[in-house]
Amino acid sequence: MHMADLYHTGLVVKDLRSSIETYGALMGTEFTPPQLRCLDLRDDAAEYHVDLTIAYSRQGPHRVELIEAVPGTLWDVREGAPTAHHLGIWCDDVPGESAKLSAAGNPLLATLAADPERATYLAYHRLPDGSLIELVDASARDRLEAWFAGAEYAGPAGRHARPSE
User: Fold this and answer.
1) Cα separation of 113 and 119, whole Å?
2) Residue 105 lies in a domain
3) How far apart are CA 56 and CA 34, in angstroms?
4) What is the pLDDT of residues 89-110, one digit of tens each?
């Protein structure tokens, strides 16, 4: 991992639409329309499904990802807790970097359920201080940059996404 590959900071918020307005006005930026991402994930114990509603700042190069809270999941918001959730990092080798993070004592919290043997496409790891790192497959960079710029989202095959209601 390299600092140059850090491309977003994820914030978990209670009300996505309100936060888009607040952060947009505060930072003088526009956000993508809210989008529902339906993810089949796994951790060390089980496979599970989560629906995340997200938006990204359009301006960069470092972007803000807003994620509407999902109670009882990794994307929950607790009273008094900071909403800073994770740092997103482009990664050319998600399985390899994820294995290195795990071996160094940074547990894997979630990855796509596509492969039961290793992390694929994205991987969330908890660092010793409690913060989270999200490794994101660098092959998604062009698709995501196009979406940030205003194109329709074109996710990889097998991933579900649609505009949020």
Assistant:
1) 8
2) yes
3) 8
4) 999 999 999 999 999 999 999 9
